[in-house]
Amino acid sequence: MVRIGIPGALFYFVYYPLWRVFFEGLGAQVVTSGKTTRELLDNGVREALADACVPVKLFFGHAMALKEKVDQLFIPRIVCLNNKTVYCPKFLGLPDMIRHGLPDMPPIMDVRVDSRDSKLAVLRALMAVGEKMKASPPAVLGSYAKARVTQMKFYRLLRNGFQPAEAIDMILNRKAAIPVFRPGQMTFAVVGYSYIINDRYISVDVVNKLRRMEINVLTPDNLSPLAIARQRYNSGKQMFWTFSDKVLRATRYFTGRKNIAGIIHLSAFGCGPDSIVDRFIQMDNGPGGTPFMTLTIDEHSGEAGVGTRLEAFVDMVKRKKRGE
Ligand code: SF4
Predict the structure, then answer these.
(1) pLDDT for 323 beyond 80
(2) Structural domain contains residue 127
């Protein structure tokens, strides 16, 4: 049985349910790199370009963790899926960065997806993957249909307040649902890229830290695509990058809502788009807006520093609410 490796970073938190069921439907065994550890992060930091953002360094570490365990690595080159915005250039270069940046890696299965080239771009990419796996077109279509059903279940769990890493565990690892939203508690929005918020190591587990402080948490992944698409941000500029555009629109949705007591932007050190996103959020929120804090995450982010800043922010919001 061919073993397909999927690094547990970046797109993992967006498409892993779909990819896993799709490949398993074609008879492959899917292997992931698991959760981030200090060692895995250190490996990525050592091997990736020094000026790469933290999530890309992390991706290197996850790819390296699969080196001896798989026959091929699946790293698609996803350019555009909505005809409007494109993924950040780092995503576009991922297959090449891993292929040329790490020695002796397994072959990389790299398919390009750009919906601006064709309405059937996704289907064509799947067919190309099927061909590499020596699967017939009907088998590819059947497997994709099953994979879509699983991905829909994943989206439903997100709409119910679970975070992607939790939904993946529930659907694919059969973990029991834990209550994530408690009535009567304050709610904060944590905005940022899924692959930062959901990596418990690199995000220093901000979501669960807030929950332990009796704060409910919502993130951009909990909003429907329609709710996000309806938002307009006030900066006057359109964001080119898909994930950055989603973060800005989601923040716009959360800003000024009565049920959102505070907004925390988890920003990645070394991320070019984030330097603009953070500024736009501040301009959009404006003076007197929803209490807001930016936490910049890097490879040295420590439990203690982040915990103290979170506690201070929560305390400030509670005092404001009490009118102190
Ligand atoms: S959007 Fe930022 S954090 Fe994400 S891959 Fe691009 S540079 Fe890195």
Answers:
(1) no
(2) yes
192 lines ligand 1 (CB under 6 A): no
**Do 59 and 128 share a domain, yes or no?**
yes
Alpha helix segments (H runs only) across 264-302: 272-285
Same domain for 195 and 302: yes
195 lines ligand 1 (CB under 6 A): no
How far apart are the C-alpha atoms of 218 and 214, rounded to whole Å?
13
Provide the residue range defining the domain that includes 216: 182-322
User: Tell me: the pLDDT tens digits for 191-228?
Assistant: 999 999 999 999 999 999 999 999 999 999 999 999 99
E strand spans, the chain: 3-6, 29-32, 72-74, 77-80, 108-109, 112-114, 186-191, 215-218, 262-268, 292-297
Return the residue whose CA atom lies nearest to atom 1 of ligand 1.
Answer: 88
In ligand 1, which atom is closest to the CA atom of 272? 7
pTM of the model: 0.93
Within this chain, do residues 136 and 17 fall inside the same structural domain, yes or no? yes
The pLDDT of residue 26 is above 80:
yes
Given a contact cutoff of 8 angstroms between Cβ atoms, the answer to whether 7 and 32 are in contact is: yes
Closest protein CA for atom 6 of ligand 1: 88
Q: Which residue has the tokens 């790199």?
A: 33
The answer as to whether 290 is a domain residue is: yes
Q: Which amino acid is at 86?
A: V
Q: Is 44 in the pocket of ligand 1 (CB under 6 A)?
A: no
Average pLDDT (92-104) is 93
Average pLDDT over every residue of 106-114: 95
Please determine, for residue 41, whether its predicted confidence score (pLDDT) is greater than 80. Answer: yes
Compute the distance from residue 241 Cα to the ligand 1 centre, in Å. 9
The CA 55 to ligand 1 mean position distance, Å, reads 7
Cα(10) to centroid(ligand 1), Å? 9
Q: 154-163, 165-174, 200-209, 303-312: lowest mean pLDDT where? A: 303-312
| Separation of CA 135 and ligand 1 centre (Å) | 34
3-state helix, strand, coil in the chain (%, to 5): 50, 15, 35
